[in-house]
Write a structure and sequence with these properties.
Elements lengths: L9 E5 L2 H15 L7 E5 L2 H6 L3 H13 L1 E4 L7 H6 L9 H9 L2 E6 L17 E4 L9 E5 L6 E8 L5 E9 L3 E5 L4 H18 L2 E6 L7 H24 L3 E5 H10 L4 E5 L1 H14 L6 E6 L5 E5 L5 H8 L9 H18 L2 H19 L2 E2 L1 H4 L8 E2 L2 H16 L1
Parallel strand pairs: 1-2, 1-3, 3-14, 5-12, 10-11, 10-12, 15-16
Antiparallel strand pairs: 4-5, 4-13, 6-9, 7-8, 13-14
Helix pairs in contact: 1-14, 3-5, 6-7, 11-12, 12-14
Bound molecules: NADP nicotinamide-adenine-dinucleotide phosphate (NAP) and magnesium ion (MG).
Magnesium ion (MG) binds next to helix 9.
Length: about 400
Amino acid sequence: MAKIQMKTPLVEMDGDEMTRILWRMIKDDLILPFVDLKTEYYDLGLQYRDETDDKVTMDSALATKKYGVAVKCATITPNKARMSEYNLKKMYKSPNGTIRAALDGTVFRAPILVKGIEPYVRTWKKPIVLARHAHGDVYKDSEMKVAGAAYPVKAELALTDAEGNETRQEIFTFKNDGILEGMYNTSASIHSFAKSCFEYALDQKMDLWFSTKDTISKVYDGEFKAVFEEMYETEYKEKFEAAGIEYFYTLIDDAVARVIRSEGGMLWALKNYDGDVMSDMMATAFGSLAMMTSVLVSPDGVYEYEAAHGTVQRHYYKYLKGEETSTNSVATIFAWSGALRKRAEMDELPELKQFADQLEEATIATIESGKMTGDLAAITTLENVTKLNSEDFIKAIAEKLTELRS
Ligand code: NAP
Ligand code: MG
């Protein structure tokens, strides 16, 4: 069979450790035999980031802006231990942070559901996708301790504009020791967040839920609510109605209760802290971090696909010692299928879209036939399970894929 042709290259961001090993296997066994793959390759492996003073990360982000779709391997965010392990010139920032800032994007996390890996919540039948507003709030706050002062101590919010005009508002008058916190967000960032959420919901034909605590935080959370509402009314109402999907706002505590009782199937947009907490709960509740995909969507419609997990360092050290590993490649495979499908949609390539669908189908069918990696074998409800090593799992998927395509 002739290989599937592409038009525009995918931006390929290679990465580190065990996921870099899986990356090569996925390309060799699952993609290159079927697709005449066109990529513009950026090596975000830590060694090359160091050689280029991290310029390669920014270059890859700019290429993503130019072409519209990227697929990224997990990468090391350096800490002290990595500084000496890789003999680094600098403690570089997280590549994901750099790319997110350059694309002004929102991260959407979606679980991959398969029979035999059951969500802990019995009612969930469809994936729940989370969108976290990864900007500001408590993550960029200023905090103070009020201690041992000459009481009373008056705490105020104070604004000083460029002309020196001041606006002040009392927060609290302390008669004794306490604590204080100030935080902010920007209208531009809230708008980008809202736009990315509406775009993703339309793209995936999913209902969009948004929740804050605007009854208590009338100005701060109230602003988030107002931005979403206005954008919905002016830009998305008709598009949503045409697509048969809904926008639904409710209070965060009500949303939590409703999500648990639901069948799933919605996109749930959350403020920064809510998203931080809920995404860890969701990943665990759906079964495994290794079955969670992540896509960064910019408000102007640029997409970057990856797995939600890291470089699986512990497995990599075993691999280096020549020991067998059983690392789950599913989320990384779905990053590739997601990126190829998006490229296919943008370039109108039905064969490539079909391939992306088949790659996912083959992956799911392999697990559902009882062949899986150790992390899944440990939690599956299926019987007669074969635990495969990293490479044999990918080979088993390749066999299914070949069957599907013949
Ligand atoms: P991790 O790579 O996600 O792995 C944590 C543990 O989760 C693993 O040791 C393993 O448990 C399990 N696990 C995760 N993914 C798995 C998979 N695909 N298959 C099987 N088991 C899997 O997190 P980490 O060890 O904390 O971080 C390692 C490096 O990744 C760090 O340098 C960090 O900076 C980086 N990181 C990158 C990204 C990203 O690029 N998006 C995200 C997070 C972390 P067992 O050991 O029990 O088998
Ligand atoms: Mg967290």
